[in-house]
User: Which sequence fits this backbone?
């Protein structure tokens, strides 16, 4: 269970994360989206299409308890975050596309998350109350720090870059903070955590990577854009999910629902690193092949 001071600190962390997201954005980014909307459109389908379905199927196949299944579906319906932007940069993807996808999916989530929860989570809500209005309201409020971040970038790029770095570290800090609380207050719960919880958390990210890339390839995006959609799809905004659960569900519900997203927050860093290494290796092979072709010609 989270104490009031824990919730206040968590709310501050989520505010900083969204502030950092806004600090990466310029008005030109939105204009570029309208000029070439295909990448964002594919990302939208991936984010709000397959990810909630994957979460639902994992919950059914693994026979997860209702509260765990609900948290998994909530995680699957959550938009991307600054962590996906960071891994896109490491994998030499399109950072501008990643950032555009992140902000567009965050805005769309105000409407899409309650809709998707109503579609996929109803059968797991027995004995639980899904605060649809609270979730939509919390997401809408998060657009305020995004707007502030954009304004800061307009005034000073240097300060915007500092805030962006702070937000990236804060995202990891949210996960470590909540895992630390769980470790101290719920030692028995962690020791008895079923393997199926770990399988669900890991497979959600991996399936997102694979399906995001394949869908992009089928719809004609370039390899650089496919990598971007892949990472943006597989890396959900875990800290935002944790914040929504902690701040909108009741204490008794939230305490049980925080476990799986916390596991996801740790495991996604490992699987995203693996995906980045795979993409970097593919890029290296393509560079060698291109150089050989140039020599042959």
Assistant:
């Amino acid at each position: 269970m989270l104490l009031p001071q824990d919730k206040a600190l968590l709310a501050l962390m989520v505010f900083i994360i969204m502030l950092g997201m806004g600090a990466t954005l310029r008005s030109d980014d939105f204009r570029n989206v309208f000029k070439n909307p295909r990448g964002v459109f594919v990302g939208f389908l991936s984010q709000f299409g397959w990810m909630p379905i994957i979460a639902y199927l994992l919950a059914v196949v693994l026979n997860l308890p209702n509260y765990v299944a609900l948290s998994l579906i909530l995680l699957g319906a959550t938009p991307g975050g600054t962590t996906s932007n960071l891994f896109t940069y490491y994998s030499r993807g399109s950072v501008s596309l990643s950032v555009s996808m992140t902000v567009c999916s965050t805005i769309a989530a105000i409407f899409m998350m309650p809709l998707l929860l109503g579609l996929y989570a109803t059968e797991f809500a027995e004995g639980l109350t899904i605060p649809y209005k609270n979730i939509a309201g919390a997401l809408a409020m998060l657009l305020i720090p995004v707007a502030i971040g954009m304004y800061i970038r307009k005034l000073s790029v240097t300060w915007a870059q500092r805030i962006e770095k702070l937000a990236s570290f804060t995202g990891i800090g949210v996960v470590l903070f909540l895992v630390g609380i769980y470790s101290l207050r719920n030692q028995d719960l962690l020791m008895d955590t079923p393997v199926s919880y770990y399988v669900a958390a890991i497979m959600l990210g991996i399936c997102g990577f694979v399906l995001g890339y394949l869908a992009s390839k089928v719809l004609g995006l370039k390899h650089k854009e496919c990598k971007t959609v892949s990472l943006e799809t597989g890396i959900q905004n875990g800290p935002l999910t944790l914040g929504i659960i902690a701040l909108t569900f009741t204490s008794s519900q939230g305490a049980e629902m925080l476990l799986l997203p916390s596991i996801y927050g740790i495991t996604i860093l490992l699987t995203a690193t693996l995906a980045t290494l795979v993409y970097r290796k593919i890029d290296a092979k393509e560079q060698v092949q291109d150089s050989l072709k140039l020599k042959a010609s």
